[in-house]
From TrEMBL:
Gene3D superfamilies: 6.10.250.2410
PANTHER family referenced in this protein's UniProt entry, alphabetically: SEGREGATION AND CONDENSATION PROTEIN A (PTHR33969)
Protein source organism: Brucella inopinata
One Pfam family named in its UniProt record: SMC_ScpA
Stated name of the protein: Segregation and condensation protein A
Highest taxon of the lineage: Bacteria
Length: 283
């Protein structure tokens, strides 16, 4: 197993010793160390090595686990003086790389219920994608335009114009009901009905006896009403009263009444008893 010396690349291309592996990066806190390693041509931060391993851009089977472990041990010794938890984090990362490499090198044994190397790589790739999405979302929020720095509000806001469009949903029944209610409010509340002039039964009997006494043959009932200048309302009352009086005279045997067909004119003729009754009345 080949072992590579731990070093970093300087600005002039020279190799920097192990004790100068500390640098301040933009994404880390002030004074927080970052590890750079060189393992068989691969040089970069440990998080980049982990990223390449998870995306399978570097063949972990060809990386010297011994060289990686020696560089980590040297880094842990340097980090103890500053932050113990930082050295522990990097040691966990180194242990994970060694475990992942062993999973990839050793075939899966029968009865081994643990996850395979491919399953671990797939799981960690998913976690890296989720972390990358969160970082992209955070960067998008930070890079948005800020009020007072990138954009500025207007000094005088515009008035809001509300455009209202009326839409009627009334039916024909609603329209007729509203019209009826309006007409009812405008209508006269008190209605006075004019008293109608009607013929009494006694008046109709007297006029019928007097007129029938002068006629000897059949004559229509409407003929008797010609002699009276009656309005349409009074004519209907006189016709009804005269017909009732004629029926009473028929019952007494003083008058004969006939009608040829329904709704035809009613004809009347005086009997002998009516003539005698008329003479008695005149006497």
């Amino acid at each position: 197993m080949a072992v590579s010396d731990a070093h970093t690349g300087g600005k002039d291309g020279t190799r920097v010793p192990m004790d100068t592996l500390w640098q301040n990066e933009a994404g880390r806190g002030e004074g927080e160390p970052s590890l750079l390693i060189d393992v068989q041509g691969f040089e970069g931060p440990l998080d980049l090595l982990l990223h390449l391993a998870r995306n399978q851009r570097v063949d972990l089977a060809r990386i010297s686990v011994l060289a990686l472990a020696e560089q980590y041990l040297g880094f842990v010794e340097q980090a103890r003086a500053l932050r113990l938890e930082l050295a522990a984090d990097y040691l966990v990362m180194a242990a994970w790389l060694a475990y992942l490499k062993s999973k990839l090198l050793i075939p899966k044994q029968q009865g081994d219920d643990g996850a395979t190397g491919e399953e671990l790589v797939a799981s960690l790739q998913f976690r890296l994608k989720r972390l990358e999405a969160m970082r992209d979302a955070a960067a998008a929020l930070v890079n948005r335009h800020r009020l007072g720095r990138d954009v500025f509000p207007r000094g005088m806001p515009e008035m809001v114009v509300v455009d209202r469009a009326s839409r009627f949903s009334a039916t024909l029944y609603d329209l007729l009901s509203a019209y009826a209610s309006q007409r009812q409010r405008q209508a006269v509340s008190q209605v006075q009905i004019e008293k109608r002039s009607v013929w009494s039964l006694k008046e109709a009997r007297t006029a019928l006896v007097r007129l029938m006494g002068a006629v000897g043959d059949w004559v229509s009932l409407d003929r008797f009403l010609i002699d009276y200048a009656l309005s349409p309302q009074e004519r209907a009352s006189a016709l009804a009263s005269s017909f009732a009086a004629s029926l009473e005279l028929v019952r007494e045997g003083k008058l004969e009444v006939r009608q040829n067909a329904p709704f035809e004119p009613i004809y009347m003729r005086a009997t002998r008893e009516l003539d005698e009754f008329d003479e008695d009345e005149n006497a």
